[in-house]
Amino acid sequence: MKIGSREIGLGHRPYLIAEMSGNHNQSLERALEIVDAAARSGANAIKLQTYNADTMTLDIRAPGFVIEDEGSLWAGRQLYELYQEAHTPWEWHKPIMERAASRGLHCFSTPFDDTATDFLMSLDVPAFKIASFECTDLPLIRKVASTGRPMIVSTGMATLAEIDDAVRTARAAGCLDIVLLKCTSTYPATPENTNVRTIPHLREAFPGCEVGLSDHTMGCGAAAAAVAHGAVLIEKHFTLSRADGGVDSAFSLEPDEFRQLRVETERAWQALGTVSYGVRPAEEKSTAYRRSLYISRDVKAGDVLSAENVRIIRPGFGLPPKFYDIVLGKRARKDAPVGTPVSWDLVG
Q1: Nearest to 38 by CA among 345, 256, 217, 287
Q2: 3-state SS class at 194
């Protein structure tokens, strides 16, 4: 599949998405700086989230509308207030997308309702992202899929049956290009809860879908492991500096870290290669330093070859070591000074 003109698949370097989310801290200038930094850091795309507080929840403090989990980054926050703080103003989307285009980045977004989907289509986005929390919102998936644009679907918390519902719904509505992202919906996530071995299973369970990782862990180890298990796309939250704060800053990568992500995921992809045995072209010179049979003391024609005058040593220009026992006890056909590689024309 493609996003814009960029091929996405196992035969291509991993596609890296820098998720801006609310890390702009309600500053358009900072949002544009994030775009520039993402481009310099090796991202392929910058991603936004398109909603406002009223399209996400109700402005009330009733049970369920306030985050009560004491372990949450947002403990005690009212949902409506949190979404007000985190949302990207819709009038910013166009200048952010224009800046991204000027930096060679794709820019697309996660819509959270039909109005956001229509708005993003008016901006001609090259793809859509579905968040994990909306993976079970089949009406939204149907609406997004009907645009015909590629869909990237995070699957945090989703059962295999729920993912199947989402894929079937998207395909029935006309979307054939789907990337499923393994995701752990904790913020931040731990490596122990990432379970990248799910990635090849997802690929097997949903033929025709590409597979990637939406990664909320710190660092790039989980992402590199995911690529080694077949991930073709990695999404990471991105900020200029965690010290600047922001709703998602605590689990976002800074520019230098994202650059390292680019390096290590590309190395992991390059290291995959193919099933391979034997001497590779790059290894041909190294074969000279294998062990082989050499004359270790001067011998004359007719002398018996023995452990006293034949050794298994480096370099590798003599007979392979597996012939050592066969050579011992044979007579030399000709004189051979120390350092002569043992060959069959020497052995009587």
Answers
A1: 256
A2: coil
Largest CA distance in the chain: 102
Strands (E) across 70-186 are located at 106-111, 128-130, 151-154, 178-183
Q: What is the pLDDT of residues 222-249, one digit of tens each?
A: 999 999 999 999 999 999 999 998 888 8
Closest to 212 measured CA to CA, from 266, 146, 257, 155: 155
Cα-Cα-Cα-Cα torsion 204, 205, 209, 212, nearest 10 degrees, comes to -70
Residue range 86-104: average pLDDT? 97
Whether residue 253 contacts residue 239, with contact meaning beta carbons closer than 8 Å, is answered with yes
CA distance 135 to 180: 10
pTM more than 0.85: yes
pLDDT at 159: 98
Domains belonging to the chain, first-starting first, are 10-51+87-272 (3.20.20.70), 282-348 (3.90.1210.10)
* Residue-level pLDDT at 348: 78
Q: Which two tokens stand for residue 308?
A: 């006293």
CA 10 to chain centroid, in Å, comes to 11
Instruction: Report whether the peptide linkage leading into residue 14 is cis, meaning its omega lies within 30 degrees of zero.
Output: no
> What's the mean pLDDT when you consider all of the chain?
96
